[in-house]
Specification:
It holds the Pfam family cNMP_binding. Residues 1-21, 538-575 are annotated as: Disordered. The structure is a single chain. The protein has 21 helices and 10 strands. The chain is an alpha+beta fold. Helix 9 packs across helix 10, helix 9 runs antiparallel to helix 11 (241-279) and helix 15 (328-343) packs across helix 16.
Length: 575
């Protein structure tokens, strides 16, 4: 059997790589390969949209570069054909899972309207060149049917780019160029149909010096179309019916284009303002409030400088609101990638569980302090700790001038006040004045948030309290006697609580036993009552008993000594 297995293996091994080489992989529609293929398809689609109509309306352009056009035409056709192959190898999502079965992918694609348009865009209309000649590019107008790939590529790029508003403006300008380009080609074709130089409205006679050049023809037509579509004016009046119809159509197109441009630009500006409002706090409301409340000019200037610093340096203070729509795990990953390195520098958080740090990262609140602003003062109640992300802070005396130490990026303070360490002589009060020397970016972690997270990690809480105790010992801020007294009090309290819990358990057990006995007694009583009801149904009614005595029926002689039926059975007789 081992030899047969080896033979089968050797026979099947060459075929497996060959099949792997022949089969193409399935693309993820949200992946990078599919995205770059869409960007590749932009070029043949844009080529057909711009060049075909230009070649059809400007004969000199078609005749002068025929070989180049044929090469580009069939290169774009080859890309169109490859695009169909890509469609047959692009998966789709079903119940959130990517389907990679090529049979299902092919059957789904064939049943879509997109497949019909893709086939229609590749119909070999060029065969008519044999009869009509190669100078009829209008035969390739069916290539416009692939324009949906252009829109899809633009949508994907807009979601991926870091500058979506700039991309929207560039896309709008491209659409405007295409519309003016098409209009200029139609204008030149109409001028040729009516006759060059026939009146002031059409293109001048190419026999005039300078107007016979192809570049001049296109630029003149493009300029004339731009004047019409932008409704600038300064265009010759039309004289013929065809010219009037062309102008009316262009004016209607200009009105629609103007509305589209205004709407698109308004949307872009609104999105930019919305993004600024989401990233940075609105200073207009604060400025108006300070004016209404007659805040002094110096304080008002400090507030304005703070807002200006945020805007210039692109600093955010509401990261939680910005990331609130992301799923919790994805939001945690983003926060970890941004802030975990800063949090891991804190001594009491070192060697903690990774999941604990991830929970704490989501609780960090960024804050920015202005020059000369106090972060905390001596004697204040400590409800949060601070981690310095950027900037410098000074530990100053009560006069605010004398500096004892300077804290830089990566350092932290206030961590002891948010951890309940037994024997802490300073309690939860601040022991120093901390003032910002310049603009300082800090991370704030509140006591409530830390307590909420540590409630799920009791081991981590013990480790952090031990580290905090070591820090207090080094600072001579730990009262050992008070710590021992608190520990003894806590142990006594826990012992009493355990006793109360035991007593409560005993009471619950007794109560359950009494409840069970009560239920048993109730069942017995119910059973006895039911037996009595069944036996009393056999007793004769009083009227029937009297009639039996009058008729001399031996109803009462059946039982001895006057005992009733119920008495024979051990039950109480009727009274």
């Amino acid at each position: 059997m081992s030899q047969d297995t080896k033979v089968k293996t050797t026979e099947s091994s060459p075929s497996a790589p060959s099949k792997a080489r022949k089969t193409l992989p399935v693309l993820d529609p949200s992946g990078d390969y599919y995205y770059w293929w869409l960007n590749t398809m932009v070029f043949p689609v844009m080529y057909n949209l711009i060049i075909i109509v230009c070649r059809a309306c400007f004969p000199d352009l078609q005749h002068g570069y025929l070989v180049a056009w044929l090469v580009l035409d069939y290169t774009s056709d080859l890309l169109y054909l490859l695009d169909i192959v890509v469609h047959f190898h692009t998966g789709f999502l079903e119940q959130g899972i990517l389907v990679v079965d090529k049979g299902r992918i092919s059957s789904r694609y064939i049943r879509t309207w997109s497949f019909c348009l893709d086939l229609a865009s590749l119909v070999p209309t060029d065969i008519a060149y044999v009869r009509l000649g190669p100078h009829t590019p209008t035969l390739r107008l069916n290539r416009f049917l692939r324009v949906s790939r252009l829109f899809e590529a633009f949508d994907r790029t807009e979601t991926r780019t870091a500058y979506p508003n700039a991309f929207r403006i560039a896309k709008l300008m491209l659409y405007i160029f295409v519309v003016i380009h098409w209009n200029s080609c139609l204008y030149f074709a109409l001028s040729r149909y009516l006759g060059f130089g026939r009146d002031a409205w059409v293109y001048p006679d190419p026999a005039q010096p300078g107007f016979e050049r192809l570049r001049r023809q296109y630029l003149y037509s493009f300029y004339f179309s731009t004047l019409i579509l932008t409704t600038v004016g300064d265009t010759p009046l039309p004289e013929q019916e065809e010219e009037y119809l062309f102008m009316v159509g262009d004016f209607l197109l200009a009105v629609m284009g103007f509305a589209t441009i205004m709407g698109s630009m308004s949307s872009v500006i609104y999105n930019m303002n919305t993004a600024d409002a989401a990233f940075y706090p609105d200073h207009a409301l604060v400025k108006k409030y300070m004016k209404l409340q007659h805040v002094n000019r110096r304080l008002e200037r400090r507030v304005i400088d703070w807002y200006q610093h945020l805007q210039i340096n692109k600093k955010m203070t509401n990261e939680v609101a910005i990331l609130q729509h992301l799923p919790e795990r994805l939001r945690a990953e983003v926060a970890v990638s941004v802030h975990l390195s800063t949090l891991s520098r804190v001594q009491i958080f070192q060697n903690c569980e990774a999941s604990l740090l991830e929970e704490l990262v989501l609780k960090l609140q960024p804050q920015t302090y202005s020059p000369g602003e106090y972060v905390c003062r001596k004697g204040d109640i400590g409800r949060e700790m601070y981690i310095i992300r950027e900037g410098q802070l000074a530990v100053v005396a009560d006069d605010g001038v004398t500096q004892y130490a300077v804290l830089g990026a990566g350092l932290y303070f206030g961590e002891i006040s948010i951890i309940n360490i037994k024997g802490n002589m300073s309690g939860n009060r601040r022991t120093a004045n901390i003032k910002s020397l310049g603009y300082s970016d800090l991370f704030c972690l509140s006591k409530e948030d830390l307590r909420e997270v540590l409630s799920e990690y009791p081991k981590a809480q013990t480790v952090m309290e031990e580290k905090g105790r070591e820090i207090l010992l080094k600072m001579n801020k730990l009262d050992v006697n008070a710590e021992a007294a608190e520990i003894a009090l806590q142990e006594a309290t826990e012992s009493r609580l355990q006793g109360l819990d035991q007593q409560l358990d005993d009471l619950q057990t007794k109560f359950a036993r009494l409840l069970a006995e009560l239920e048993s007694s109730a069942l017995k009583i119910a059973y006895r009552i039911e037996r009595l009801e069944w036996h009393t149904r056999e007793w004769p009614m009083p009227e029937e008993q009297v009639e039996a005595d009058d008729e001399g029926e031996p109803g009462g002689d059946t039982f001895k000594d006057g005992e009733s039926r119920a008495g024979q059975e051990g039950l109480p007789g009727p009274e």
